[in-house]
Amino acid sequence: MRSSLSATLGLALLCSPSFSAQAWNPPSTFAVRGGTSKSFTSLQNAASLVKEVDTTPIEGMRPGTSGLRKKVEVWQAVDVTNTNYVENFIQSLVDTAVEDNDGKPLDTLIVAGDGRYFNTEAIQIICRVLAGNGITNIWIPEGGIMSTPAVSAAIRTREGGRAQGGIVLTASHNPGGPGEDFGIKYNEGYGQPASEEFTEDLYKRSLELKTFKTVEGSADIDLNADAGTTFSITAESTVTIIDPFDSYLTSLRSCFDFEGLKKFCQRDGVSIAYDGMHGAGGPFAKRVLVEELGLPESSLLRSNPLPDFGKCHPDPNLIYAADLVKKMGLKSDGSADESVDFSSLPMLGAANDGDGDRNLIAGAQCFVTPSDSLAMICENWEAIPHFAKAGGPKGVARSMPSSAALDVVAEARGIPCFSTPTGWKFFGNLMSSKEMFNGTDYTPFLCGEESFGTGSDHIREKDGLWAVLAWMSILMNANKNVSEGEPLVTVKDIVKNHWAKYGRHFYCRYDYEAVESDAANQVMDLIRDSFVNGDIKSAESGELELVGAEEFGYTDPVDGSKTSNQGLILTFKYPSGDSARVIFRLSGTGSAGATVRMYLERFEKDPSKHDEAAPVALKDLADRAISLVKMADLTGRDSPTVIT
User: Please, which pLDDT band fits residue 27 given cuts at 50, 70 and 90?
Assistant: First the structure.
């Protein structure tokens, strides 16, 4: 049985026309340290009433790979056709969770968001709906802001894992603010994203919903109250403000040597640049990197959460983290800017996304692709106490579109390796094979996605800050025998040595964002009909020969569930005999239209060719694939929105 959980976010029908990013004061949100206050406030009054409200079903509430994402105005019900949109979705989720709990009422849930526009209003509405449904304990972090990894940690460990689930208000790496995106995702009782079975049941419930429950007439919760403050919404339902950091810090301490890292950070030549992209991860980076490890606060860039992310796109890639990329001596294609003095650059650069679960890793004049980062963490597991104390990972996994760099390392080191569909929920089953299904124990576990996600089994989500600490640990270990005054081993040294040993998997991704859904589906249908189900010999001739085509499907080795239509794979052969592949997927993380993603990979063993920029090395492969699938003709796009 899936763990019972309950609600997802209830978004307010209220708009915030007076929104001002400048007026928002994030420092006060995270001021508490040490002990917690214990004040109690009743929000009930004579007019407070639990009420069951008539409603009608609304189409389109099927969650994607990581929750339900829509333009914020949809959640706000600016259009009358979306009246009760949030309430409907929450009630559908609560009903699904109760049914999943053998019909028993839910007890404890966490409600938290990444701080994007409408976060505060949404939390107020959610709490009233949860209270209307009799949820006894509702935990909210100070300020209502908490990174997704921290929510997962709190579900798993706070008060012995008392929470049955978490409602996370986030659209992840998508932009926020008026006219931009808002989302709701639900994490189940082990801290993992809701299963496909759960979200499909939720969707079906949303199509038949007739009423929702809420509390009318109660006062708003003071989200900036100190940790430990409680608020009574009804006689049965209490909100408790919690410290956003404590459970997460405990989880990170179980993985890394904080004392050793603190000493390493004091060495001459060790410096870090961290870009929080004005998302939820910034305060957690300050708490760990500055307050715990002693780095100067000047190491942090854009680390105060803002409702519109400072009008930036909070996706940690080479394009949207442009300031960090330049600071690390890199060009926008990831190649080194040789005009910059190498000695003046930070040793390590990193960025997290809107909700703090994704990461970008770079060294001085050296961009590390997410696929390479995952493989290199696996190769250097001895540097990370979480793995070292267990004798290494017992299992590793990557999303299918990620490069095979991890597979090569895992085979060499004798570690079971899995290739899964995109979506962290698939890793969750492998991590929890023994915990949830009494199956094979693959922990400690390492996993990642090409979309800048990396993590381990300390929680059940990808974890941007975990990846940063993993690379700090690798650098610390690589320099343990380097004497003071001697040149330090750099990220570039580690990367080049890895490629020399295992070869380089040239890799990049073309994203065609906000393509009309019909046009995006036409691209996929052409590939499926002409090549996967057709005759690859019908493909126009070219220097790169199309030698294979397939559609990826997955049978979960833990629970036996089957997942189909997870990506179309075209395999090519170079005149030299070397193979390459191109994968096409429609992304499920956008709020409008469709994103066509094209993933390119080519293996190169020759070290003399390893320094070429990936987009350059893969240009002929990209051109061949784009021509074959008639990308420009079908989508009207002459070039991708972004190349990463």
Answer: very low
